From TrEMBL:
Protein name in the entry: AraC family transcriptional regulator
Species the sequence originates in: Salinicola endophyticus
Transcription regulation keyword on record: yes
SUPFAM superfamilies from the UniProt entry: Homeodomain-like
Domain of life, source organism: Bacteria
SMART domains: HTH_ARAC (SM00342)
Pfam family, one: HTH_18
Length: 326
């Protein structure tokens, strides 16, 4: 479905006005490129002025994201997803994602919103709505299997709520009282709309996604250490084969590939943000061989570590990952 198909013709003018208002509100508070934290807890604004401004690698915490202007491509394991205006995404678990802005200019920058989601907040709202906490097989709740990343086109109700949340940045005295109410409405809109199958994953305390979230939490805390899949399986009372299958359904990669991504994401950050040499960064994130690190880095990011850092610091186009996560 395209954005035009999602909007009745009689509503196009009001919808366009709503989009223009949202864009203006983001522009007013996202002066710098990249992710900008706001005065509203959990709300970040995103801006890129050109397609060469690579969003790079980032571990996305559970969140709801919206693209208000421009377009981007993300890679999750072996899955490539193209997003444009009105794209609304939900990640139910922390996911290491590669992203690149594909449509932006100084006159019409790429603009987005990221709202972190608290699983308990979703669970409380589901119960308040009188909905059962889902316990059926998650494949029945998600049209894309049990993938931890959902994607739909935002409807007018969702856009209005998100625009009002960003608009509160203009009246900071209202944030403490009104932001929690608008945030709750946003979650409600997601739960009654097309994102519902993904949102309900947050409340499945004995479900596959919840178990994989526990595994991911351990991997995030201990990604530098040698990985023993058997230990992870025991932790969530699963067989190794069941863990492998479930983990790949949720994240589109195996536990080992996930750990590798966490290591490489962190190494990239260390080299860019702290000026660390590639060999030092490789040891810091758990590699015992810098040459092995360099090969895996090149496989994931398309170029060797040093060349990648030079390109990113020089704001040159980053290579498309040819075989990320493999």
């Amino acid at each position: 479905m395209t954005a035009a198909q999602a909007i009745p013709r009689h509503a196009e003018s009001s919808f366009d006005a709503l989009m223009n208002t949202l864009v203006a509100r983001i522009l007013a508070h996202a002066d710098a490129e990249g992710f900008t934290a706001s005065a509203i807890p959990g709300l970040e604004l995103v801006r890129a002025n050109s397609t060469t401004a690579c969003m790079g690698s980032r571990v996305y915490e559970p969140a709801l994201c919206l693209i208000a202007q421009g377009a981007k491509t993300v890679w999750l394991g072996d899955r490539q997803i193209d997003y444009g205006p009105l794209s609304c995404m939900v990640s139910a678990v922390p996911l290491p994602i590669l992203g690149k802005v594909t449509q932006a200019s100084p006159q019409t920058p790429y603009l987005g919103i990221k709202l972190t989601i608290d699983p308990q907040e979703v669970t409380d709202l589901i119960l308040a709505m009188g909905l059962p906490v889902a316990r059926q097989p998650e494949e029945e709740l998600c049209p894309e299997g049990a993938c931890g990343l959902g994607h739909v086109l935002a409807d007018q109700g969702m856009l209005e709520a998100l625009s009002r949340l960003v608009g509160l940045l203009d009246t900071p005295q209202d944030i403490a009282i009104l932001a929690p109410l608008v945030r709750r409405e946003i979650l409600y809109r997601a739960l009654v709309g097309e994102l519902a199958p993904y949102m309900r994953k947050f409340a499945m305390v004995d479900g596959q996604t919840h178990r994989m979230a526990r595994v991911i939490e351990v991997l995030q805390a201990r990604f530098r250490e040698p990985l023993r899949v058997g230990d992870l399986a025991d932790m969530v009372s699963m067989s190794e084969s069941s863990l492998f299958h479930s983990f790949k359904q949720v994240t589109r990669m195996s536990p080992l590939q996930f750990q590798k991504r966490l290591r490489l994401h962190e190494a990239r950050r260390l080299m860019l943000a702290e000026g660390m040499e590639a060999a030092t960064a490789s040891y810091r994130v758990g590699y015992s061989s810098p040459s092995h690190f360099s090969r895996e880095y090149s496989r994931m990011f398309g170029v060797p570590p040093r060349a990648d850092v030079i390109k990113l610091r020089g704001d040159l186009p980053a290579a498309t990952p040819a075989s990320a996560g493999r």
